[in-house]
Amino acid sequence: MDHQALSDMMSVRDLMRAMIRDPNGKGIGSLGYDGVLRTFDAERNVLDAIRLNPAQIREYYEGLPMPERFLTADGRNVSERDMFHPDAENIPRKPTEEDRARTRAHNEDLRRRGFTCCVPDKLADGGEPNPK
Fold it and tell me: Which residue ranges does the record annotate as region Disordered (predicted)?
């Protein structure tokens, strides 16, 4: 069985757990408009990429409104080169200092109101990201 056929049978959750992540914990994961799920380091270099089929894209958005552009997305048609060298629209932008300040203020407001926040990029089961 080829790699894509195996990936097609896996859940998005399992695929995400198997992906290479930024060892410094400063990276981000993102589903591009091209249907490719990628992990990036803090500088937005692609660390890992997996092509998702339409069913997996719907699973990724399960319980959330899915942007219309994803209704026709199919990552299985993306070349290996484009997986690791995506167009700018498929790379998440880096937060500005203003974005960071807004997030800190929002989190502080939540803390004052008694809400607790999750630590980003931690697995719910306490496991460590797969270093591959």
Answer: 82-107
